[in-house]
Amino acid sequence: MEEYFSDLFYHDSVTMGPTLLRPKSRGSITLRSTDPFDQPNIDPNFLADPEDLEFFQVGFCVEILETNAMKSVGAKLYDKPFPGCRHQQMGSDDYWRCLARHLASTVYHPVGTCKMAPDSDPMGVVDNKLRVKGVTNLRVADASIMPLVTSGNTNAPSIMIGERAADFIKEDHL
Ligand SMILES: Cc1cc2nc3c(=O)[nH]c(=O)nc-3n(C[C@H](O)[C@H](O)[C@H](O)COP(=O)(O)OP(=O)(O)OC[C@H]3O[C@@H](n4cnc5c(N)ncnc54)[C@H](O)[C@@H]3O)c2cc1C
C-alpha cells in the first residue's frame, strides 16, 4: 500500500478527483443511551445508495484524459492496480467501485439533521422561519437545517442561515 502511494505521488503532476455533490445516501445520528452526556451514534452511511457508488466509475475522467489538452501535458491514467482491488480487472466497473470503496473520503459537509421542511414532511424539524415545530421560542440556525447539502461548500450558506435567523428574530421583536 505504501509503495503504491509513494509511486503514485512521485510520478504525479495532474490529479483529478471527482466530487459527489448530491449524494443520495443518508446517514443518521441516534441516541446511544438515556444519558444526555453520552456521545451520540453517528453513522454517515457513506456510499450506501448504489447510485452514489456508480458516480465513482470515473469513465468521464478517462475521457478527459483523452483530450488534446491533457495529452499535451502528458497526463495518463495511473496504470498500477490498487493493492486492495487487484482481484478486479483494472479499468472495469467493478474495479472503479472497489477503488471508490477504498479511497473515497469526505469533504466534511454534513447537513440536514434538523431539516427545514413543510408540515407534510414527518422528518422536518424547523419551519421556514427556522422555528422548531412544536416548541416555543426555539430556533435552529446552522447547517443542520439544510434539507439537502448544497452543491458546494457549506460554510458560506451556514453564515447566510445565521444572518437570516438574525433577521427573523428582529422581525418578531422590533
Ligand atoms: C475539516 C473540515 C473542513 C472544512 N472545510 C470547509 C471549507 O473549506 N469550506 C467550507 O465552506 N466549509 C468547510 N467545512 C464545513 C463547514 O466548516 C461547516 O459546514 C460549517 O462550519 C457548519 O457550521 P455550523 O454553524 O452548522 O456548525 P459548526 O461550525 O460546527 O458550529 C457549531 C458550534 O457549536 C458549538 N457547540 C457544540 N456543542 C455545544 C454546546 N453543547 N454548547 C454550546 N456550543 C456548542 C461548537 O463549539 C461550534 O462553535 C469544513 C468542515 C470540516 C470539519
UniProtKB/TrEMBL annotation:
Gene3D superfamilies: FAD/NAD(P)-binding domain, Glucose Oxidase, domain 3. GO terms for molecular function: flavin adenine dinucleotide binding; oxidoreductase activity, acting on CH-OH group of donors. Pfam families: GMC_oxred_C (PF05199). Residues 23-162 form the Glucose-methanol-choline oxidoreductase C-terminal domain. Belongs to the GMC oxidoreductase family. This is Glucose dehydrogenase [FAD, quinone]. The lineage of its organism: Eukaryota, Metazoa, Ecdysozoa, Arthropoda, Crustacea. The gene is Gld_6.
